[in-house]
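User: quick one, fold this
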Amino acid sequence: MKSLRLSSIVLLLSFAACALPASAQKAPVKIFMSPRSNVPLADIVKNLNDKCSNATIVTDSMKSDYMLEAVGWPNGYKFVLFRKGGQVVYATSTAWLSNSVKDVCKYINTHPAQ
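Assistant:
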């Protein structure tokens, strides 16, 4: 009897989560890749999917929240994040691509786009 009651509560909570209004759900953060980037887009997308599921790459700069310049060099990666309008808001330099993406993701999630 207890397991039936617990199952009913879990089911009810899962339906309630799905019924949240669209305004209560977080919209994805849209990132446009700078034409100066030399890191393959597929590598960026793979790491974004792993580290930052709320971010997506867009091909229209006018519809983006941020622009990301991702440059690979012999000793690692340098990423610069620009807010819409061109203001530099974050930069990181790491040895591993995954760490650069993780750092940008952390910034995006702690500093919402305006």
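User: anything notable?
Assistant: Confidence is low (pLDDT under 50) at residues 6-24.
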